[in-house]
Amino acid sequence: MHxxxxxIASAGSMALAAALAVPAAAQVxxxxxxxxxxxxxxxxxxxxxxxxxxxxDVPISVTAIDEDSLTAxxxxxxxxxxLSGRVxxxxxxxxFGRTFPRFYIRGLGNTDFDFNAAQPVSLVYxxxxxxxxxxxxxxxxDMQQVEVLRGPQGTLFGRNTPAGxxxxxxxxxxxxxxxxxxxxxxxxxxLTAEAAVGGPIGDRVRVRLSGLYQRQxxxxxxxxxxxxxxxxxxxxxxxxxxxQAAFDVTEDFEILLAGQLRDLDGxxxxxxxxxxxxxxxxxxxxxxxxxxxxxxxxxxxxxTENISARLTWDVGPVSxxxxxxxxxxxxxxxxxxxxxxxxxxxxxxxxxxxxxxxTAETRDSIPDLxxxxxxLRIASNGGGPLSYQFGIxxxxxxxxxxxxxxxxxGDPLNAAGGINILVSQRQESEALGIFGSLTYDxxxxxxxxxxxRYNDDQRDxxxxxxxxxxxxxFLQNPLGTVTRSVSDDTITWDGSLTYEASDDVNLYxxxxxxxxxxxxxxxxxxxxxxxxxxxxxxxxxxxxxITSYEAGIKSTLWNGRARLNLSGYIYDxxxxxxxxxxxxxxxxxxxxxxxxxxxxxxxxAQAAITDNFFVTAGLSYNHTEIQDNGLTTAACGGVRVDTxxxxxxxxxxxxxxxxxxxxxxxxxxxxxxxxxxSPRWIANWTARxxxxxxxxxxxxxxxxxxxxxINFFLYESIEFQDSxxxxxxxxxxxxxxxxxxxxxxxxxxxxTSAVSGIDxxxLTAMVNEPRVWGIAAGFNF
Length: 781
What we know:
mainly beta, 5-stranded mixed β-sheet, 43 strands, Maltoporin, Chain A, single chain, 3 helices, globular, 22-stranded antiparallel β-barrel
């Protein structure tokens, strides 16, 4: 047996034994994190196939996270990145902080940091796809549950889902009046306030208003030669609100209208220069979480607004569902990308920390984003062995992006500050999908499902690079208008078999084909100066397709006191879209690899050890490998000739095709490498123990997430990786049906891990969030 196969088999056996003996936890189920106890694991209802089903009956590897568990994860004001590692095979990271999350499932994601990045993991928020990265960061509040669907979802959810979907379902207006208010206060004056209220207005109208406010003080000191700016960075203010109104026009016809908005004002990502040491793995002694030394600006703003309408008409044999949505957004984020101050052509006391070859400060903005989606779907209402749904989907997006380069301090070419390079992008995207899916029950225990979707995508792109005429020799010359257009149409599909082996055990097998539409990358602040069609810096990636094979078992054990779901998969991603980030300049470049092979498994388990002791556990193994003999990319940037002649910034582990030269990165072969941000192992576990006291319970809740080594870029080096990360939280409190009081700690061990890096200028790191503690209170009414 191959060594990796042995690892999978042994890990699966150990996880199974752990789940049946004394499980810990990973994902969370519909077991409340509140006072109500239960004698088993209950039933989890998901909508992974666009209809309500028991999670045990769905032939997909899916995990559900309920509202109460989300509350625990976000105790310290964390954003959507708190989901990272909390379910098998899911990782979330960002080089923009709270603005721009990047999702990875089964190792598939996209490290692209431009605002038009196309990701293979789709976010679906109340039946509406969120395509642009600034929409994907919409805060999590008043949620019924979150579902993570692993593997291609190219039939019912469409394009750009070859890796999977993260699906959010907010609480809808209810027939009974209800509401809640929750507050947390913690370290760094971290405050979170969340509330919702709703109920009927008359006989035919139901409403719900919910909102979230989060803020945190700046807590990181900026240490510069001219003095220290105390508590200069790290804070934010964020507000989000949602208003819903449901109209029961008749007993068979409902209209649900919703509007929501988000307003974020805070600190962008903190980039920390030379926190890696050449030839050594891990953060070095220069790292201090509470201090940084940067001479550039740092700020971030996001505003997004949405209106939507969902119409549901039950006409007997079928229901007709229409979902219309419009999103608008603006965003701006500026950071000191070199992570330090000054430059090494200045006196030593005016540059640092470490080697800063040149200053680099960039701002990326979205002056205008408009996304319109329309779906019309017809779904059968049961009543026989055949159930089906079919429909049409339309997507239209208009996106403006502005990227600016400038320096605030220490650059003799631009001592007065101001923009020296400006890139303006305009992208228009349209997509059409026609889809259908049916399930046929061959017998009481055996069913088959098949789906088909036609996808048609069109994207038009225009980019212009200009330059401040005051500094005509700065880096590159202006470019004229550069245009690109891409389009494709294809068929995606899936098929699955489900066999009910017993009342408590379901077996399934699934094969699916997914697709990601062609992409364009035009963040050309630093491409070659020539303006020929082949050298203007704009890159295009052709469509990628994936074929995935999956099989699993879903079981209920111990007379309903435990649940164990295990799935294994293998996929081939053909013409894989990859993003070469960094290199000699701070740029993105799209490339296609012949193939990426992936395989692994996912395990979810929950158990009610006693009526008062509930645990969950999750484990995944994901192997990814780029398979393209001739595929190359630029490695880490070159350094100044007077510092390390002809030596790369980092210690490259891949075969070098072209050695590094002064101010020029080495070209390396990346065949056989794993994908970036793709850990082999992800494990997560939770445990909750309750002691009845009076009208409620004293409870202890803990949750943990682990991931193994990740590589930051397509190439491999000693420096730009992180060996592992383990973060845990504890929450202790007293809860009744009406109120809760608790104390909490997040990242209780104060784990310090690099989560990404910047490689074009120096050995710059980005790190995880610090330990935060605080108190919480909640009231239901």
